[in-house]
Amino acid sequence: MLWGGEEFRGSILAARGSNVNIADCTVPEKILLAAHQLEQEGQSPFSAEALIVASWQKFPKTFGLKGYADQYPDSNKVLSSIMGEKGLARRGWLIKMGQKLYALTREGRHVVNRIMEGGEAPTAVQAAKIGRDQEKFVLTLLNSSAYDKYIQNRKSELTFSDACRYWGISESMHGEQIETRMNRTRIQLTDLERSVGPEGLDLTDGRNVGDSEVAQLVKLHEHLEDRFSRHLNLLRSRGDRG
Hints:
Blueprint: H1 27-40, E1 46-47, H2 48-58, H3 60-63, E2 64-65, E3 68-73, H4 75-82, H5 88-91, E4 94-98, E5 101-104, H6 106-116, E6 128-129, H7 132-142, H8 145-151, H9 160-167, H10 175-195, E7 201-202, E8 208-209, H11 211-227, H12 229-241
Parallel strand pairs: 6-7
Antiparallel strand pairs: 1-5, 2-3, 4-5, 7-8
């Protein structure tokens, strides 16, 4: 559901009987609500620029440029609330996913739920835990150059070397070795999809990986497999000829 700007009076979710007024929300909470809206629209992670615009569109009086509130956002007001000692990232409400890329944390989602439910803290649902090997696997994918380019809409820059690092293969492999590694990646991604719950996956470094991020990892795998199918087939055929 898309909410209007601050000209909307009354409670944020009057239809649900909430007594929370927009005026009661702090600046960080308003940014958090804008971040939640971006994730509801399928943008996860989202860029700092997208969050600036979403915050301004939702709350123009709070985040509009002085004297031009209806025309331009004040980017510094949003950025200063994201970063710094008291910023959303330091509070643990947002996590940095890449250069100027962010996502809501589990704690951030709890704060959004508290606001939307009228100030009552929701009952915490335990996030899923995964094993050491599975965590190593998901971190390798999330920290890969392929994922970094993919979430920054730089798909045209993806190379076969990026794909190889994503899958954990090398161009010196061939035939059965390639098939084994690719099959293992598919199985691990399937296991990851089954493991992630509504509260995401808690990693030992404190990071929470949501189902939207897992879905992106799967889509990236499929994209790379389709894009570099010819390269993979060449490696496979080298083994067949041998």
